[in-house]
Amino acid sequence: MSTILVSIDPATGKELKKYKIHDEKYVEKALKTSVSTFEEWRRLPFSKRASVLKNIAKELRQQKDALVKLAAKEMGKPMAQGHYEVEKCASTLEFYAKNGAQFLADEVVATDARKSYVSFQPLGTVLAIMPWNFPYWQVFRAFAPTVMAGNVMLLKHASNVSGCALAIEKLILKAGAPKGLLQTLIIPSSRVQCLIDDSRVAAVTLTGSTEAGRKVAAVAGRNLKKAVLELGGSDPYVILEDADMNTAVEIAVRGRLVNTGQSCIAAKRFVVAKSRKVEFESRFTEEMKKATWGDPLSGIHRIGPMARHDLRDQLHQQVVDSIAKGAKLLCGGFIPNEPGAFYPPTVLTNVKKGMPAYDEELFGPVAAIIEAKTETDAMRIANDTVFGLGGGIISNNRKHAEMLAATELQAGNCYVNDFVHSDPLLPFGGIKQSGYGRELSSFGIREFVNIKSVYIK
Fold first, then answer.
1. Under a CB-based contact definition with an 8 Å cutoff, are residues 262 and 296 in contact?
2. What residues are paired with 115 via a beta bridge?
3. Considering only CA atoms, which of 263, 262, 220, 234 is closest in space to residue 447?
4. Does the first or last residue of the chain, that is N or C, have fewer Cβ atoms within 10 Å of its Cβ?
5. Which helix (H) or strand (E) holds 314?
6. 428 and 263 in contact (C-beta within 8 Å)?
7. CB neighbours of residue 221 within 10 Å
8. What domains are defined for the chain?
9. Of residues 74, 94, 169, 230, which has the active-site annotation?
10. pTM of the predicted model, to two decimals?
11. Cα end-to-end distance, the chain, whole Å
């Protein structure tokens, strides 16, 4: 087994840095530190925990420029999007610092006892297995509620963002957090099972692929440990006959190209009413063609490289296979003849069941347009997927669209006249093969606690 991980710049294909893999001795020390830190951290009042979270938020903002540049180099995120990501992390830390105590306050329940209530107590060490696409947000989205609840965290980040992972641990320590509140482990995925098996790990949270989710769920289930899984998505956006086309196109482009299309909740399948399909195709394709791609450090491009060359090549094969089965290419659909893992904005239409663009997640800047004969047909197509993370309805009849979003669209996050995005005020997560459990809001902070009944006769 290799003793190093190599970080590659996806914009150039050149090596950035080598990282030494942490050996078993290092991991054992980290586990011991987590246990001892938890015993101290869980006893701190909410006000003390909140103070630490606010200091971390301040440190994030102070280091923003360096963090953004690091993400651009390691996984290709355009600079403007990186700045937004870091700021979102900071504001979420402040959200839980402000609201955590209220979310976890004892809830009095009237029973035949002299006194009875529900108390929310932390579990211990939570293992966080995180992906590369939002190297800071995915971590802090889990970290903020988890540690505010009194837990501590071990971070196993994606191998291609090892620099970001180590930077997170370093800045948390610099902000005055106790050693062990978050520890980064530079280890391959093959060693994750041993961590979940370890009795000192109380629970696990994963953001990643459905395949990874199955593996983690199996190990966690065997150990009877709580898991939260935020997995893949193939989000449908239903564009109804009465949709304002300016709104539809703007949402479609923004939703499809966020993070170079590498987002679980990116807009991926556009289910369009038959009477509006030609207009939507034309205007949407025109706007997709305008989106420039190039060096993520330049600050002028909307799209950077995909995170790795193998992911770019896999996406291209999905496009090629879809075209071979009858999909029509409206723009893009080629591998640029230049260094880097770039892929141009791509639009496929006449997409039908049995094509990769219909059945699979397209994790990159590729949009699939699917015609719907009726509204009922549109909702059937939207729900005809193994995924259930997010989805949208575009319509001028907000009341009707709300009904469809609330009762008919099968997903954990359903938006009307906007693209799906996470917000600390709202619970975030999916159904079906998009996972289970929730992050963010009051629901997220209660995932890794012991919901304890206390009864005094």
1. no
2. 456
3. 220
4. N
5. helix 309-324
6. no
7. 11
8. 4-231+432-456 (3.40.605.10), 235-416 (3.40.309.10)
9. 230
10. 0.97
11. 59
Phi, psi for residue 71 in degrees, rounded to 5: -65, -40
SS3 label, residue 19: strand
Task: Return the H-helix or E-strand segment holding 390.
Answer: strand 390-394
Residue pointed to by tokens 């296979």:
321
CA distance 405 to 420: 12
- Residue 11 has a pLDDT of 97
According to DSSP, the residues that pair with 435 across neighbouring strands are 230
For the chain, list residues with pLDDT below 50.
Answer: none
Question: Which residue is catalytic, options 264, 281, 361, 371?
Answer: 264
| DSSP-derived 3-state class of residue 447 | coil
pLDDT, tens only, 424-444: 999 999 999 999 999 999 999
CB of 42 closer than 8 Å to CB of 34? no
Active site residue 230: yes
> The dihedral of CA 62, 65, 68, 69: what is its sign?
negative
Active site residue 331: no
Degrees (nearest 5) of the Cα angle 191, 128, 86?
130
Q: Is 440 helix (H, G, I), strand (E, B) or coil?
A: coil
**Which pLDDT score, from 0 to 100, does residue 238 have?**
98
Q: What is the pLDDT of residue 363?
A: 98
What's the rounded Cα separation, in Å, for the pair 171 and 59? 7
SS3 of 414-438: EEECCCCCCCCCCCECCCHHHEECC
Closest residue by Cα to residue 307 from 410, 157, 437 = 157
Distance separating alpha carbons of residues 294 and 397, to the nearest angstrom: 39
Euclidean distance between CA atoms 277 and 371, whole angstroms:
7
**Strand 115-122 versus strand 449-456 pairing type:** antiparallel
Helix, strand, or coil here: 303?
A: strand
The Cα 442–Cα 210 span in angstroms is 25
Q: DSSP per residue over 230-298, as a string?
A: E----EEEEE-TT--HHHHHHHHHHHHHGGGG--TTSEEEEEEEGGGHHHHHHHHHHHHHH--B--TTS
Tokens of 287: 């706007």
What's the confidence (pLDDT) of residue 144?
A: 98
Sheet with 107-108: list strands edge to edge: 107-108, 115-122, 449-456
Q: Are 436 and 271 in contact (CB under 8 A)?
A: no
Query: Which amino acid, one-letter code, is at 99?
Result: N
